[in-house]
Design a protein that fits this description.
This protein is mainly beta. About 10% of the residues lie in helices and about 35% in strands. It contains six helices and 29 strands. A five-stranded mixed sheet has the order 5-6-7-8-12, with no helix packed on it.
Length: about 450
């Protein structure tokens, strides 16, 4: 089974050593059993906390003790991507291999039995969604975004269109739960944006807006939209990564509001400063080519300025520290900071601060930062391991970037200084030495003392 989709949900409980969150994951099957959308609880340990029992018993293919399923529903088709409605995180929107999208109230959906079934009959029939979102004329597989300020959903498809739905007028019915009929009620798109010349690969809302967004696609273009100005492009950047290169992902930095990142099929990553945008001739702020396969997913850190994660076909997730206060390039300049790629130095750029290599068996298809400051720099990621003949399926991983990597240098050095003796000599300082337990007064003397006493009496 593969796990191509995930969504980090709301915090459920905060304890001294761990924090419990809701997460949503999917299971893609070969058709012998229903496709699944699963609500689970995950316990995330706080920084500098570790369970010795879990570490000592860890195996690569063992089931994670921190993730526990709470509810399973049967999805009509495999889930390619999912995102929540930020105003109501129990509402999940899903993309599948069809023109339709589905909206689910995971708190109200009836739970289904997870056990294997034949995939046929009423017991294996798909669950009924609270809402079906229609309007695409061809399949819409992956591009999906939700606005943080209003219950508005955006989707891109093979029909070269970006569609928008507002579910505000239907919220009362959706929150009460329960789809009607065999497939659930239908909601047509309120806006259709036309401007791309090929399949759309990704879409993202501008932070703080439900009317401005960006999209990228196989026509090698990045397009900015403003629905207040009509259904045509506000700005189009042609050949944004070079002539003939499909652009596969885009994300808009929530901290600055003016930095946008894009990733392409050749592994290149580009950073754009919207303050310098000047039409189709706009230049990127920085360019990197360290990934050896296509970049599939990008996400800016929700709390730290300039921190960006990228992942893709080379099975790596890279974490970058960009400078959001760098000088804005003139419209006539080429992108500064271009590094990597053919003919470039083999040295890694200084902006790259971390690489996660845990997905060794398949390409990284999705990941998300945890948005809670209680567990900083924590991420959940999934890979498609279907090409691995030994294992197959998919891998879901929960991990954290060590704070010695991203904290201020002076602060890190001060902390390490406390452990200088152990780092250099492998010994703790005297105040941290483990002392042997003291012998209680009532305890009998050791055997050696008994023997000495007998000799004295003799």
């Amino acid at each position: 089974m593969a796990n191509p989709g995930l969504q980090m949900g709301a915090m459920l409980e905060d304890a001294p050593y761990k924090t419990k969150f809701r997460v949503y994951i999917s299971e893609q099957t070969d058709g012998s059993e229903p496709q699944k959308l699963i609500a689970s609880n995950v316990e995330v340990t706080k920084p500098h906390v570790c369970s010795s029992e879990v570490v000592s018993s860890w195996q690569e293919f063992s089931k994670c003790p921190y993730i526990k399923d709470q509810k399973v529903i049967f999805h009509p088709g495999e889930v390619n991507k999912m995102r929540d409605i930020p105003q109501h995180p129990e509402l999940i929107v899903t993309h599948t291999d069809s023109p339709e999208l589905y909206l689910w109230n995971m708190d109200k959906q009836p739970a289904r039995q997870r056990e294997k079934s034949s995939g046929k009959g009423a017991q294996s029939a798909p669950s009924v969604a609270e809402l079906r979102l229609t309007g695409h004329e061809e399949d819409a597989l992956f591009p999906l975004a939700t606005s943080a300020v209003a219950p508005v959903i955006a989707s891109g498809g093979n029909d070269k269109m970006v569609l928008l739905w507002s579910i505000q007028d239907h919220m009362e019915t959706i929150l009460s739960g329960g789809g009607s009929g065999d497939k659930g009620p239908e909601l047509a798109a309120r806006t259709k944006l036309r401007g791309h010349d090929a399949t759309i690969e990704d879409v993202v809302f501008k932070p703080g807006s439900s009317e401005q967004l960006a999209s990228v696609g196989d026509d090698h273009a990045m397009i900015f939209w403003d629905t207040r100005q009509g259904d045509g492009p506000a700005t189009t950047i042609k050949d944004a990564h070079g002539k003939g290169l499909d652009i596969q992902c885009v994300d808009w930095d929530v901290q600055t509001g003016y930095m946008v990142a894009t990733g392409a099929q050749d592994g290149s990553l580009r950073i754009w400063d919207l303050r310098s945008m000047g039409g189709s001739s706009s230049k990127h702020l920085a360019s990197f080519k360290v990934h050896t396969g296509g970049v599939i997913r990008l996400e800016w850190h929700p709390h730290h300025r300039g921190i960006l994660a990228s992942g893709g076909e080379d099975k790596l997730i890279m974490v970058w520290r960009m400078n959001p206060d760098a000088p804005v390039p003139e419209a006539s300049e080429t992108g500064s900071g271009a590094k990597g790629g053919k003919g470039a130095s083999k040295e890694l750029p200084q902006e790259l601060i971390f690489q996660h290599a845990g997905h060794r068996r398949g390409k990284v298809v999705d990941f998300q930062w945890n948005s809670s400051p209680l567990v900083p720099w924590t991420m959940m990621s999934v890979s498609d391991d279907g090409e691995d003949e030994e294992v197959g399926g998919g891998s879901l991983q929960l991990w954290r970037v060590n704070d010695l990597i991203w904290r201020d240098e002076e602060e890190v050095v001060a902390q390490l200084e406390k452990h200088r003796d152990f780092i250099i000599n492998g010994q703790n300082p005297p105040e941290l030495q483990v002392l042997p337990p003291e012998r209680k007064p009532e305890e009998a003397p050791p055997p050696a003392a008994e023997e000495d006493k007998g000799k004295e009496e003799a």
